[in-house]
Amino acid sequence: MSLAVYDGTAKGANARFIEDARRSTWVPQTVAEQALRRLEKSDPLLELTWNLASGSVYVEQVGLEAASVILTESPDAMAKLIGATAVSDEGRHSSVFAYYAERVGGAVAPPAEPIVDLSKGLLTMEYPAARMLCHTLLEGFAADEFFWFIRGLRSTGLSDIYRLVRRDESRHVGLGMYYATRGTGLASVQALSPEDLLNAEEFVVKYSDLDVIDALLTRLIPELSPGSVSRWMRYRHEKRMNMIFQVRSDRQDLIRYRKQHPAFA
After folding, report:
1. Pairwise CA distance, residues 41 & 101, whole Å
2. What is the pLDDT of residues 72-127, one digit of tens each?
3. What is the pLDDT of residue 6?
4. How far is CA 76 from CA 118, 129, 183, in A?
5. C-beta separation of 6 from 76 below 8 A
6. E strands of 65-214, at which residues?
7. How far apart are CA 54 and CA 108, in angstroms?
8. What are the two backbone dihedrals, phi and then psi, of residue 5, each rounded to the nearest 5 degrees?
9. How much is the pLDDT for 152?
């Protein structure tokens, strides 16, 4: 492994992202304790919040693992600097959810099998560009999911945590999309074979069960109509995929293929 070199300038969009990361620093235990002050022991969502917080501990760990590998794989110094902010963020996210879950349920619940499989799949991907895309797309789904959790979990205080975490996750999506479509990661995204690109998306969709998320949020927010959240999240995902397709010479072929083979069943 050799030292990465700077390619271009640290000014512009990269500098804005990094400055936002610096301003977003907060103390996990303090944030968790403030959130817990809003939670009553008689709250009917008590068990749900414990399960959600516990699951989020491990999901954020997956993000931390992926960001760490991406950081070591990054071919340029600016990408490493950006990746370092994501590693710091994901560690803070996992910690704040752990503090919350331990106070509510006495311990963090064990990880679900799909989360374990997600972690293994991300870490064993052959191509760094595919791993980077998967991480970005997964962060996109997480940020969109958290948007609704902020509305549906106000009584538990967990919404306050999701609000802070979502800001970081949204920045990660912006960083990933910028890197893949306009930054130094563009060439590697363009070099991915169509099969590897579509397989990366298929992997993400496999571990993003929008129907389950939709059913949960419809229960938390009764005014939502069934299917509205999943449709919105699919729309947001399609926008991100279209941005990726636009930088490839085979974009029309990819678009036609996906129309005939939708990513979501």
Report:
1. 13
2. 887 777 677 777 888 989 999 999 999 999 999 999 999 999 999 999 999 999 99
3. 56
4. 27, 14, 10
5. yes
6. none
7. 5
8. -115, 155
9. 95
Q: Taking a C-beta distance cutoff of 8 angstroms, is the pair 82, 18 a contact? A: yes
Low-confidence ranges of the chain (pLDDT < 70): 1-18, 21-22, 78, 265
> Nearest-CA neighbor of 94 among 31, 157, 137, 182?
31
Q: Which residue's entry shows tokens 């538990």?
A: 156
CA angle (36, 37, 40) in 5-degree steps: 85
**Sign (positive or negative) of CA dihedral 198, 79, 61, 212:** negative
Tokens of 197: 């690109």
Report which of 91, 48, 94 is spatially closest to residue 71, judged by C-alpha positions. 91
pLDDT of residue 123: 92
* pLDDT value at residue 139: 95
Q: Which residues are CB-contacts of 99 (< 8 A; sequence separation ≥ 6)?
A: 28, 29, 32, 33
The one-letter amino acid code at 194 reads P
Q: What is the pLDDT of residue 149?
A: 97
Tell me how far apart the alpha carbons of residues 174 and 171 are, in angstroms, rounded to a whole number.
5
CB atoms within 10 A of CB 246: 10
Distance CA(80)–CA(4), nearest Å, equals 8
* Confidence at residue 9, expressed as pLDDT on a 0 to 100 scale: 53
Whole-angstrom distance, CA of residue 134 vs CA of residue 260: 22
Tokens of 14: 């990269």
Q: Which of 114, 108, 109, 110 is nearest to 138 (CA)?
A: 114
